[in-house]
Amino acid sequence: MKYLLECRGIGYRIGKNIFLKDINFTLSAGQNVVLFSESDQAASFLLQICSTLIKPTKGTLFIKGLEVNYNDQKEFLNLKRRLAFVDKKSTLIQNLSILENIALATIYHENRSLEEIQIQLDPIIEMFNLQKILRLRPAEVERAARRRVLYAIEAVKKPMMAIFDQPENDFNENDRYYLFNILHKLNEYRNCGFIIYTRSRPLMEKWADEIIVLKDGLITKQVDKDSFLRSRK
Amino acid sequence: MIIASVFKKFDYPFLLSAFFYRILKTIFIKAGQGRSIIRKTIIQQIYFTAVEVLLLLGIIGVIFGALVIIQILAQLSRVGISEALGQFLVVIVIRELGPLIAAVIVILYTGTAMATEVGYMTVLGDIRAITMRGIDPIHLVAVPRLIGTTIAMVCLLIYFDVVALLGGFIVSWLLTGIPFYTFMMGVAVSIGASDIIIGFIKAIFFAAIIVVICLYRGFQVGGEITKLPHAISKSAMDCFLGLLIIDLIISGIFYL
Question: How many domains does chain B have?
Answer without folding.
Answer: 1
